[in-house]
Amino acid sequence: xxxxxxxxxxxTLPPHVVRTERExxxxxxxxxxxxxxxTDIPVDPGHADHDPGAIHKMTDLVTAGLRAKGLGFHKLxxxxxxxx
Length: 84
Fold this sequence. Notes:
Elements: E1 17-27, E2 30-39, H1 52-68, E3 75-80
C-alpha cells in the first residue's frame, strides 16, 4: 500500500522514493513523530552510485508535500531499499 505522504499533486511518487513510513517514538521530551523515507539511492557515501544531490532533492520533494498537507515530523530517517 502506498502512503499518501509520498505522493505528489498528480498522484505519482517523487523520483527515488520507494515508500515513506511514519513511526511514533518516545523520548525523555515526549512523543516524537519520525518520518522514514525509503529510497533506491545508496546511502553509503562510499558506494559508487551514492548521490547526495539526489537525496537532498528527494527529501525536499517529500517534505514539501508534507507541508502542503499540513503535516510535519520531529526526526527524519533515510533508508535504502537494498533488500527489495
